[in-house]
Amino acid sequence: MKFVGGETAALGRVYEYFWKKDLLKVYKETRNGMLGPDYSTKFSPWLASGSLSPRFIHEEVRRYEDERQANSSTYWVLFELIWRDYFRFLSVKYGNSLFHLGGPRKVQRSWSHDQNLFESWKDGCTGYPLIDANMKELSTTGFMSNRGRQIVCSFLVRDMGIDWRMGAEWFETCLLDYDPCSNYGNWTYGSGVGNDPREDRYFSIPKQAQTYDPEGEYVAYWLPQLGMIPKDKRNFPGNLYIPQIVPLKFGKTGRHDKDKFSGARRANDRK
């Protein structure tokens, strides 16, 4: 999707998504997609820049409910707006601790600052196509799906053990829809130092790939070299792709023996 700034483009997107294409009625079913312009509303860049008002979106959802239908999808768009407000209230409550290593909960944990590992994540060279494709999309377009953001955050902090603030800063650098409250609020949430009842939230890459990209269409779009191999092997292509930079904390992919892992680390250290 090509984003165009300004209020006119923002209002045009609301009209297109809600009324012309009638996509609001299926938002809840499609919102976890990753490929294409219409799996989600894509309102966030205009909201972040102030070109689009959340109150206007709320009014349009209510009008849609009156004129067409009210269902779980119309509720869910409003629910996402509430999440946006929640992170703003969170930032008011916790202030600068939102940017501290231990986050609002003041969690004591040892984090790595391995620059080679971080650069592999940032550049989309981890050896895990689902991670790499999302990071390529971010650096190329300035956007990433909500599902993708959760997956790459979990991988950076849970599997790589990297300081979550390094990831948050990279998102701050790249995102078209960056704002401090939502970005740092979501990163503290995803890394276990913010308000989350699950203290060790983990996204299994094999499970996420099977659920949200079962035929590898997303990874093949951003990593064209994978398009030539069978669809069921695109997310875990073995020796047909670059070495995996770290083993997963949970979940097997078939490439985690000690020698391969050590070789991947040595190759990365030489970069």
Can you walk through the features of this model?
This protein is an all-alpha fold and 271 residues long. The protein has a domain at 7-94: Alpha Horseshoe (Serine Threonine Protein Phosphatase 5, Tetratricopeptide repeat). 54% of the residues lie in helices and 0% in strands. It is built from 13 helices and no strands.
What labels describe this entry?
Serine Threonine Protein Phosphatase 5, Tetratricopeptide repeat, mainly alpha, 0% strand, 13 helices, 271 residues, single chain
Helix content: 40-55%
- The radius of gyration computed from the alpha-carbon positions, rounded to a whole number of angstroms, is 19 Å
Q: Distance between termini?
A: 33 Å
CATH class wording of one domain = Mainly Alpha
CA-based shape: globular
Flag low-confidence runs.
254-271
**How do the helices and strands follow one another from N- to C-terminus?**
HHHHHHHHHHHHH
Question: How big a fraction of the residues is strand?
Answer: under 5%
Number of strands: 0
Shape-level CATH architecture of one domain: Alpha Horseshoe
Q: Which whole number gives the mean pLDDT?
A: 92
